[in-house]
Design brief:
It is a single chain. With 367 residues, the protein is α+β, with helices and mostly antiparallel strands. It contains 9 helices and 18 strands. The strands form 5 sheets. Strands 12, 13, 14, 15, 16 and 17 form a 6-stranded antiparallel sheet that branches. A 4-stranded mixed sheet has the order 2-3-1-4, with helices on one face. A 4-stranded antiparallel sheet has the order 8-7-9-10.
Length: 367
């Protein structure tokens, strides 16, 4: 029953993806070891012992020896390893190190060869990332939302944003004096921000960011404090609610309440919160035709429906935003994948600067 459930499927997907990444990573170590004629004694997916205790529960689900290498499937699904002669690995086998180095051992190889053997797994990780990014760009392309399209500014989705001084409707112009072009760039740049330049009600202003901004995000478990503002498009309508009684249907777009315009979902929520328990008139667009519906607001300030997922296709269809989409051919996707992987690595490297500054509190988020 578990395997047929959504949780079971996700667990299976996770294990398959993890297994593939482990195999590719260990294959990187294996490749360079064999390239430099170093003996590989074991190549295992998962551990054939209770990691990290190499002497406990030593058995495998499957194993087969070919040449000098034993290939196997361990029982403990936490990772995997290659056991390279003359090198202390996850098995913590130090007995061989008491003997003089042999020509086929890791210890006897040149320094640059030992370095490549150790880095082999990481190099494969980077290559896999490049391949995945290239495939994503080739199949789906790159879709971004220009900040210029957000004519009514951002939606502050977390209380931290308000504490920092942001307000829904702000238009972010630059961070640390660097102009931003796309909404997707805001949150990554904000992690290292000292100042944020924005426009509010036609006025340009600057917010100073606290040095422990990252610590605040971590402590409040906030992934993002901003969202693009979205229209209210009805998704699933709950039974026995004011939405059902009013006749709201999936796909309806609510544009106003009691004659007041509420084009965005955040405006609808704020308005409903001020009309708890009241009977209201909704302005609705259904199949491109305007109509009026009477609805009862619950005592908690809700109507009883889930909003439809705001996909880029839906936003463009409704005329709210026009995304920039860049398509890549098969050959063009490869250098674009390399660029994307390089940008991600640079983003990770940049994080070390804040990790080593205790005032930022970023050390709390190291995993």
């Amino acid at each position: 029953i578990l395997l047929l459930s959504g949780v079971g499927i996700k667990i299976a997907q996770f294990l398959i993806a993890l297994s593939l990444l482990i195999l590719l990573h260990e294959a990187g170590h294996f490749f360079f070891a064999r390239l430099f004629k170093t003996r590989v004694e074991k190549f295992y997916l998962f551990f054939d012992f209770l990691f990290p205790f190499p002497g406990l529960l030593n058995f495998s689900l499957f194993k087969k020896k070919k040449g000098d290498t034993e290939y196997g499937l361990g029982w403990f699904p936490l990772g995997g390893y290659v056991k390279i002669a003359g090198m202390v690995d996850e098995s913590m086998d130090r007995e061989a190190l008491a003997q003089p180095p042999q020509p086929w051992e890791f210890r006897s190889k040149k320094a640059w060869q030992r370095l490549l053997i150790m880095l082999g797994g990481i190099l494969v990780n980077v290559l896999v990332a490049i391949v995945i990014y290239a495939m994503i760009l080739f199949v789906w392309g790159e879709k971004k939302l220009p900040l210029a399209q957000m004519r009514d500014g951002i939606f502050v989705a977390d209380s931290i944003g308000y504490k920092l001084g942001f307000e829904t409707g702000d238009k972010i112009i630059a961070i640390n004096g660097k102009p931003l072009q796309y909404f997707e760039d805001v949150m990554p740049e904000l992690l290292y921000a000292q100042t944020v330049q924005l426009e509010r009600d036609g006025r340009t202003m600057t917010l100073n960011m606290p040095v422990n901004f990252i610590e605040q995000l971590i402590d409040n478990k906030a992934r993002a404090i901003f969202m693009s503002r979205i229209p209210t498009v009805v998704g699933k309508v709950a039974k026995g609610t004011g939405a059902e009684a009013a006749g709201l249907k999936q796909g309806d777009r609510i544009t106003g309440i009691n004659g007041n315009s509420t084009p965005y979902f955040d405006q609808l929520k704020t308005t409903l919160d001020s009309l708890k328990g009241a009977q209201i008139t909704l302005q609705v667009v259904r199949d491109e035709k305007p109509m009026m519906l009477t609805a009862q607001v619950s005592d908690s300030g809700t109507l009883g429906f889930m909003p439809q997922e705001p996909t880029p296709q839906l936003m463009e269809q409704l005329g709210f935003y026009q995304y920039e989409t860049k398509r890549y051919g098969l050959l063009a996707s490869v250098p674009a994948g390399i660029r994307m992987a390089g940008d991600k690595l640079a983003f990770y490297a940049k994080q070390f600067k804040v990790f080593f500054n205790p005032k930022t509190g970023a050390y709390k988020g190291i995993g």
